[in-house]
Amino acid sequence: MAAEPLNILDITHVTKRFDFQGQQIVALEDASLSIRKGEFVCLIGPSGCGKSTLLRMIGGFETPSEGKLDMWGKPIGEPGPDRGMVFQDYGLFPWLNVSKNVGFGPAARGRPAAEVAETTKRFVDMVGLTRFAEAYPHQLSGGMKQRVAIARVLANEAEVVLMDEPFGALDAMTRENLQQELLEIWERTKLTVIFVTHAIEEAILMADRIVVMSPGPGRIVADERVDLPRPRDPTDPDFNKLRRHFASMLGGHH
Ligand SMILES: Nc1ncnc2c1ncn2[C@@H]1O[C@H](COP(=O)(O)OP(=O)(O)OP(=O)(O)O)[C@@H](O)[C@H]1O
Q1: Are the C-beta atoms of 115 and 187 separated by less than 8 Å?
Q2: Quick one: three-class SS letters along 144-177?
Q3: Ligand 1 neighbour 51 (Cβ under 6 A)
Q4: Who has the most CB within 10 Å: 23, 78, 82, 211?
Q5: What is the 3-class SS of 53-94, one letter each residue?
Q6: CB–CB of 116/108 below 8 Å?
Q7: How crowded is residue 129: how many other Cβ atoms within 10 Å of its Cβ?
Q8: CA distances from residue 102 to 90, 114, 118, 164, 201 in whole angstroms, order as listed
Q9: Measured in Å, how far apart are the chain's first and last C-alpha atoms?
Q10: Where is the ABC transporter domain (predicted)?
């Protein structure tokens, strides 16, 4: 009998090239990365280093030019509910209210109505939007919209949550609140999270591992474990030491 794969994700020697106006752009070159179930991994690096491209390939929205991406030992194909994406611009359906946005996936997959209702309520409650269940996206703040987007991915039974600068458009206070909420949800659900950010502090606050990337062509230049105890304190001297460490690694870019 074949052994169970150890990793939820195995990214092996992945290169991605794009043709753009007759030129070839190497968005990502020879990237390899293995991720365990339940890990919180941050991808950090300056603009254009291939963070979104890597995330989109894990999501199944792009295919690699070379190399392979596996989930539980099987090649990643089309996008699927097991890999939920959360974007900076929310991606909600404006014509559906909060509950209908959250319940959309399970309903579309033909789950019985009672189960859809129960799942919807559980995740709307989990992200603290019970009072706004009937509200439409235009009636919500940015932070609330991002909570809906997170609840929607959770209701879809995602095993891996792919987050592309999800809090980048939010003010500092909302961002801090959502960081804490996401960490609580992650600890409770043991999801695997891959989180793209520009912000060193955000990465140190949240990640088990920080994968540092550099541009031109996009490459993984470091992959380091963050061993600070949780909850983490940005005023802690050890936190500061790591901040300086990653800032010097990112060099002139930060
Ligand atoms: N569909 C595409 N066609 C052509 N070039 C692309 C395409 N998608 C990405 N690229 C190029 O690939 C490189 C990496 O882009 P990517 O969006 O992955 O970087 P990023 O690190 O996520 O950047 P940012 O932090 O600005 O979002 C860039 O040079 C970009 O212009």
Answers
A1: no
A2: HHHHHHHHHHHHCCCCEEEEECCCCCCCHHHHHH
A3: yes
A4: 211
A5: HHHHHHHCCCCCCEEEEEECCEECCCCCCCEEEEECCCCCCC
A6: no
A7: 20
A8: 12, 14, 11, 19, 30
A9: 49
A10: 9-240
Query: What are 171-225's pLDDT values in tens digits?
Result: 888 889 889 989 988 998 889 999 999 999 999 999 999 999 999 899 999 999 9
Verify cis geometry, omega within 30 degrees of 0, for the bond prior to 64: no
Res 2: pLDDT: 64
Cβ-contact 164, 85 below 8 angstroms: yes
Whose C-alpha lies nearest to ligand 1, atom 25? Answer: 47
pLDDT at 1 over 70: no
Question: For a substitution probing ligand 1, which of 25, 29, 44, 54 has the most ligand atoms within 8 Å of its CB?
Answer: 25
The full length of the chain comes to 254
pTM (two decimals): 0.92
Regarding the beta carbon of 50 and ligand 1, being less than 6 Å apart is answered yes
Answer whether 101 contacts ligand 1 (Cβ < 6 A): no
Work out which ligand 1 atom sits closest to the CA atom of 54: 18
The preferred substitution site among 23, 52, 164 for testing ligand 1, maximizing ligand atoms within 8 Å of CB, is 52
